[in-house]
Amino acid sequence: MNTGRHEFELIAWIRQQTRAHDRIPLGIGDDTAALAFPNPANCLVTVDMLMEGVHFTMPPATPRQIGHKALAVNLSDIAAMAGRPLAAVISLALPRGVPAKLAEELYAGIEELADQFDVAIAGGDTNSWQGPLVISITALGETTDRGAVTRSGARPGDAIFVTGGLGGSLAGKHLDFTPRINEASKLHEAVDLHAMLDVSDGLAADLQHIVEESGVGVILEESEIPISPAAQTAAEEDGRSAWDHALSDGEDFELLFTVSGDDAARLLANSPLEIPLSRIGTVVDGNEMQLRTAAGKVIPLPVSGWKHLL
Predict the structure, then answer these.
(1) Per-domain residue ranges of the chain
(2) Is residue 55 a known part of a binding site?
(3) Is 198 part of any known ligand binding site?
(4) 282 among annotated binding-site residues
(5) Is 252 annotated as a binding residue?
(6) pLDDT for 93-108, tens place per residue?
(7) 125 assigned binding-site residue
(8) 151 known ligand binder
(9) Which helix H or strand E contains 188, and what residues bound it?
(10) What is 7-142's CATH number?
(11) Residue 48 assigned ligand-binding role
(12) Which CATH class, in words, describes the domain spanning 159-300?
């Protein structure tokens, strides 16, 4: 690796920066890490890959932001299952010839977020090649005593909720968002979550996952979709409506979930969260995705969002 350091020197530097953790009796330095999890029977595993030119451009994204996002997208997946993150391993392919400082800043972004959520960095792999920067992180977590929340538990009559505001994430949120780990935990304690996921591909596209996995239909309320200020700004710049940005931009990394009508009333009366929480629709029989417009007309919901081409 021609980064001003040999690969083993970089690994040694990473090892020095990685704090010791009682969940990792054997960490960086051996062929595998040894993990000591409180409840291994309920282990959650998720992996996400970020590629330069696909998920970010550098610049304007900084290496520290890329490191943050690489771990954050994994923690957001664990939040979507109402789980608790425990550890992570990192695979990094650096463009040949980049300075060592880039790798150091990238790992600093990972470590900052890992410290915030008490995630142990257990190890990984580094390499160099002629292509762009690629980073893949595998995160491990555990379920709570109430179990994992899946996409398949939505029931007719459920209320549909989303946290935060939606749309316009390319203005910066997609690089520096905070995964909703704490919010998912509070919701899981307060009510019976029937189905949940994180909004990564766009509200409409991700809601379709719940519809398909649960075998239900939905009616969204146009007037209740929480539109972020960034979506308003994006609309002024590109001519698309702010509502369309909120529906389809993606990479909001907010929680989208369903609960019973009784639990919906509890959440609206006394939300356990310190961020906005919006009731945006209802689960119904059938398999259609519909929208009730501000004028009260029910029409098919346009579905668009991020899709990877294979």
Answers:
(1) 7-142, 159-300
(2) yes
(3) yes
(4) no
(5) no
(6) 999 988 888 988 999 9
(7) yes
(8) yes
(9) helix 181-190
(10) 3.30.1330.10
(11) yes
(12) alpha beta
